[in-house]
Amino acid sequence: MTKSLANVIPYPAAAPSTLTSLAADLTEVKQQVNLIQKIMKEVMQAGEHYGTIPGCGDKKVLLKPGAEKLMLTFRLSNDLEVSIDEMPNFHREYRVKVTIYSPTGQRLGTGVGSCSTMEAKYRYRSEGKNTGRMVPREYWNLRSSNPQKAQELLGGKGFTAKKVIDSYYIFQNGERVENENIADCYNTCLKMAKKRGLVDAILTSTAASDIFTQDLDEDYENDLNPNPAPNPVEEQGENQQPASSRPTTRTPNNSTAEATPAPGSNDSRANNASSGSPSSRDDILGYLSGKKIKHEVKDDGKIYAFPEFSDASARAWLKDQKFKWDSKLKAWIV
């Protein structure tokens, strides 16, 4: 039996959706913009959550802590997709895709970030020269609030703070050479790619690009803090020496400032290690044994040391003791 078409009731078609019908309420948009601006003024701090670069205008640069504050404000969550490209000579490139979700699980936006060990700051290292001057305590206090002033305390552009054994010393940058321990940078590059992707995703999801930018983010952190190191004052905690017992050193402007020994430091040992002249043979062997660094004394009298890749302070000390790196033997030799 066939049905008559006259008896079929047509199903009403859904009204076509338009961009205007799906658009957020104008009042809601204004409230979100006002909230972001209020968070920036009342919660975020310049130099920590955002910054500006001298000579590059007044546009605010959103940093990772600032992006995390916006995530907390709007109760956002994120999901990561990481891919790794293996490159010649053990170099790697990390690519991270960050997707942002609302508290209800709605996808709000996506950001991408990449980082490669072929970038100059990872691919190369500087054969720096230890000036023998300890980093003044004031440097750590100014590093976030006034990076330019902090850099002046080291001697200006071309100088940086590096850890030698248990103390931080001022090094003058030298000739740039290939980084023979490129694997040390893998985790740093992965974190950097994640950070770049996160900042991009937050700017996209919160429509905050008119308030912040990201393009200058890396320049801000690397130009003003070219070799960031942990603050030894914070690391010391209860073991920190009283100010009256800490040595002083002359800053570049010839003013006296407190030197900054690192936690558990032995100042006399650190000073001997950084005085510019190698320690005695017995002192070198004693240091290697005390630090449990694998080493051998060959028949020709040369000392072969094999520090772990992750032990940057030991490698810096070996350089000060005139050890030379042999890439074929994978050993430091003196």
Automatic annotation (TrEMBL):
Region annotation (Disordered) maps to: 218-283
Q: Which domain of life is it from?
A: Bacteria
Positions with biased composition (Polar residues): 238-279
Keywords of the record: Plasmid
Recorded protein name is Uncharacterized protein
Q: Which organism is it from?
A: Pelobacter propionicus (strain DSM 2379 / NBRC 103807 / OttBd1)
